[in-house]
Amino acid sequence: MSLTKSALDAHALHDQIVVCVLNCNRGRLELLDSVRRMDESRLYVELGCSSIEHYLQKKLGFKKSSAWSHKSVARALPELPRLRETFANAKMTWSTLRDVVSVATSRSEQLWIDCLEKHGADVVDREVKAAKGDGRDAPRDGEYSLPAHLVKLTFALTADQYEAIIEKLKLAQSRHGGPGDDGPFLELLIDSYLQSLSEGPSDEKASNTEPTKTVVYHQCPTCRTSAVETAAGPVEIESTAVDAATETATVIHIAPEEERPLAPLADDAQPDSETSSEMRAKALARDGHRCQSCRGRRELHAHHVQPRSTGGRTQLDNLVTTCRYCHGLLHQDRLIVTGTGLTGFEFS
User: Structure pTM?
Assistant: First the structure.
């Protein structure tokens, strides 16, 4: 089926893409079945190869890592029929299947499928990494946020810049007390640079007074479970990090009763009040200062899930953070949001 530009339809084009993904995934499963048969029969020896990985690299041009992952998944799938079916039905990508198969067992494969349906591929990727580190075959039960993990920060440098900067970093680290925790050391360097700017001429100070980027932390006041908001969702951190941040950060308290839903107003009642700046700040803080549809961070709005015009209340449970673009789509009925602040929001 082909579509001309004048006849393009979003739903028809989406259906065509789904068919393509289904064909790709089922073709990949046929490939994996053939790789497994070649592996088990050792017929690759007759083709001058010493292993199935060697065969995939030499005869098919696979990279070493890709050859290894195809071998591993091909060997594991016969014991994981539910994961195989999920992938065949285009409800899981190849990269997610490859990651999950590295830890899943017949006992836990449905738990990984449930985790994917509930949280998405990014969360599954983090959970797989954590499961490997902990020696588990299943995602965490009753998780509060994503598992803690290290994040690499990359800089693009020329060869000469790299050599010069490495030497300067070694010198700075030695004066700082030697190599250790990279995070506090890098933060100290940046703080020192910003401090040097603030100590410059008055006109230079005026040009460097922009506020820093917003970093959102969550902490339960009772159990002190803590997380930092990221593009993939909240990630576990030590409570001491939040304690340190509160010395200079704006603290927003959300009491349990503020999150409880209120009954919609009667049809003949006046619309509820508009969103106050304080209520908007709490909604944005709860949602990590990110659009809950596209995860963007610019020009954010607190949108009423049930409109005020139909009895919707101006309360946290009925407010969801959206960017300007997604907010416009909602008001054009081209995007639909359901759910609540307590149960979570879904967009379609």
Answer: 0.67
